[in-house]
Recover the amino acids of this structure.
């Protein structure tokens, strides 16, 4: 609050002073008039003794006397005030971005609860530990390499002071145009990237990256070897995620589709339906295809057995934590709360809320009407589906469209879960492929459909003047840019993730032994039960009669 | 089998290799950077060698393997679809033309991801036996 009060007071003062300066100049008065006004304002500032009496009303805290003076002999100057205004703008944006980053970081707790709750009790410790350790794996990999690949050429963000140390995008010339491929500066945050603005963007982007990584752990839960999970997560945080994120957010070739080929404003993904969720979702599909289904998931005729999670309360509370964290995810993606259209944060936050709401309705009503019960786990996935889908368009659409996007996502996640399980025969214990992959792709496409052209983040997006506008509001070329992004996700990111994890499967093996899987991974992999004092209920017949020998026969 | 000391040691080696390799790339312009890059890659190679050596310790897994040719076809189809979408942007300057080539590319990629690879994964699926 204090920083906001200071900002408001200083901005108002600067405005008055600037206005005063202009009128004085017009009247051909001496330029010292502004200095006189500053001196007058300084003389009226509360004295130390006045402040010592306390300020219960908050009216005398944060005044002209709080503006730093560069030359104490000359006193307060207009330059001092202007510098303070600039620093306040950056200070507000730093504070906003960091706090939103902290919220996103807390989403890890939500993911851990959702994933562990949807797994069996014998795998609780293992699932929680994957969600815990993926944070460290991702953070370390991103610090030493990933951040440089993603943001190493992303200089120019005025909201955070310019980020000028990040000027190292590697480019290639193709078809007469220059395309960004990957960043090159910022490894280890050393050298010139030891900069306050770079630190802020690192923290914010790091927690986004970690969100993508933790999606994979859900799809591969209950049979993923901890060693292979760790190596796979490091490589995803160092290479896979940063590459696509550079192309979309770091000044790479997807962002340049507008400037180079005239496709709308280039690939537009406000907060990461594609960059974060689809990257996580398609990687989850790739790894789930390699690791295979859990023992007992499918019968010989191919029909699927429902393997019920152990704690629906953890799932639902985890979902609320995620929904809370999403207020950092989407509104925080303005990377500021002052200037460059950042006041749209209110709209972004409301869009986020609404899509989560309609996503829940979509899934709950679908399950209730089709299956006969308002299924709790699918309702939870509906909330997440709505949030995932609105992540890309949240900064570009109006509330009605956000409601529609969320509703469609809520139904889509139910259909997709059934498709992945019954048609593809891919075992995804938490529905991560559908929630983050399918609904993430839908979010990317929805930008190209529903963006209403009213947003204005500094007058341009991806270097193209104007607002992001979708097909329904008159710009079909934006939809093409979005579809190129979709193609990159299902083509390059999926293919690359599959190839990378295939290699890991050859060297390490993704899957635990059948013996460990049947026993539950808590003891064999982690050495400790998640709930050592619980008396476990007997599992269904198919699980009780299974033996390691039969499972591998 | 399960998590073991060998796994822990090999993962530590892997992390060391990744870190030194990254440091080598970061300071490649210097002599010590080049040395670090070579050293890091060697450590990484050693860690992967140990990974391969201890892999059989895991014991039998509920997985009979997937046909490599079909898997390769699936991955190549995914990449090919992406290539069609990207290079197709230069075949036409019209929005509709570009949309068509992009959609064709997406369809090819999806065929790889949602048809070829799942078929490969389920070819020898353990649940069929």
């Amino acid at each position: 609050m204090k920083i906001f009060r200071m900002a408001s007071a200083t901005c108002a003062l600067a405005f008055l002073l600037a206005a005063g300066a202009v009128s004085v100049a017009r009247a051909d008065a001496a330029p010292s008039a502004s200095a006189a006004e500053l001196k007058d304002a300084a003389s009226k500032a509360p004295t130390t003794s006045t402040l010592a009496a306390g300020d219960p009303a908050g009216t005398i805290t944060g005044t002209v006397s709080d503006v730093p003076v560069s030359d104490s002999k000359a006193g307060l100057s207009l330059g001092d005030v202007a510098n303070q205004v600039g620093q306040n703008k950056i200070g507000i944006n730093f504070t906003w971005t960091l706090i939103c980053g902290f919220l996103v970081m807390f989403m890890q707790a939500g993911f851990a609860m959702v994933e562990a709750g949807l797994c069996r009790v014998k795998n609780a410790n293992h699932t929680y530990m994957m969600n815990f350790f993926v944070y460290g794996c991702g953070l370390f990999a991103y610090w030493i390499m990933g951040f440089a690949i993603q943001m190493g050429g992303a200089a120019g963000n005025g909201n955070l002071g310019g980020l000028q140390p990040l000027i190292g995008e590697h480019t290639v010339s193709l078809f007469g145009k220059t395309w960004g491929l990957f960043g090159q500066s910022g490894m280890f945050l050393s050298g010139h990237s030891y900069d306050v603005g770079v630190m802020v963007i690192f923290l914010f982007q790091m927690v986004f990256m970690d969100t993508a990584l933790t999606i994979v752990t859900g799809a591969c839960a209950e049979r993923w070897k901890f060693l292979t999970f760790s190596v796979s997560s490091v490589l995803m945080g160092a290479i896979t995620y940063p590459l696509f994120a550079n192309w979309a957010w770091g000044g790479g070739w997807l962002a340049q589709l507008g400037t180079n080929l005239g496709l709308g404003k280039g690939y537009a993904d406000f907060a990461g339906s594609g960059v974060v969720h689809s990257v996580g979702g398609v990687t989850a599909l790739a790894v789930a295809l390699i690791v295979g289904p859990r023992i007992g998931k499918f019968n010989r005729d191919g029909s699927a057995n429902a393997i019920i999670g152990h704690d629906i309360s953890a799932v639902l509370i985890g979902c609320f934590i995620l929904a809370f964290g999403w207020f950092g995810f989407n509104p925080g993606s303005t990377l500021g709360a002052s200037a460059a259209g950042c006041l749209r944060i209110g709209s972004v936050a409301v869009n986020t809320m609404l899509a989560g709401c309609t996503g829940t309705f979509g899934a709950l009503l679908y399950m209730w009407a089709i299956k006969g019960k308002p299924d709790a786990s699918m309702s939870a996935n509906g909330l997440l589906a709505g949030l995932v889908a609105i992540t890309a368009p949240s900064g570009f659409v109006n509330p009605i469209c956000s409601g529609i996007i969320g509703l469609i996502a809520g139904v889509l996640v139910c259909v997709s879960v059934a498709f992945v399980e019954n048609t593809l025969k891919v075992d995804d214990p938490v529905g991560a492929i559908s929630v983050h992959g399918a609904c993430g792709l839908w979010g990317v496409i929805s930008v190209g459909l529903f963006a209403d052209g009213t947003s204005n983040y500094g007058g341009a997006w991806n270097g193209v003047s104007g607002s992001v506008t979708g097909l329904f509001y008159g710009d079909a070329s934006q939809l093409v840019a979005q579809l190129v992004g979709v193609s990159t996700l299902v083509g390059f990111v999926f293919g690359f993730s599959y190839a990378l994890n295939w290699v890991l499967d050859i060297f390490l093996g993704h899957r635990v032994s059948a013996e460990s899987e049947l026993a539950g991974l808590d003891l064999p992999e982690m050495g400790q039960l998640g709930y050592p004092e619980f008396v476990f209920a007997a599992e269904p017949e198919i699980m009780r009669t299974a033996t390691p020998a039969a499972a591998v026969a | 089998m399960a998590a073991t000391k060998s796994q822990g040691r090999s993962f530590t080696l892997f992390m060391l290799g990744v870190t030194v390799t990254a440091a080598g790339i970061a300071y490649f312009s210097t002599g010590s950077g080049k040395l670090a890059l070579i050293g890091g890659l060697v450590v990484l190679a050693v860690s992967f060698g140990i990974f391969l050596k201890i892999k059989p310790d895991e014991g039998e897994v509920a997985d009979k393997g997937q046909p490599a040719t079909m898997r390769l076809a699936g991955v190549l189809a995914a990449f090919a679809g992406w290539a069609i979408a990207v290079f197709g942007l230069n075949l036409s300057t019209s929005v509709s033309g570009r949309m068509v080539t992009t959609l064709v590319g997406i369809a090819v990629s999806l065929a790889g991801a949602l048809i070829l690879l799942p078929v490969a994964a389920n070819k020898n699926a353990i649940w069929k036996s």
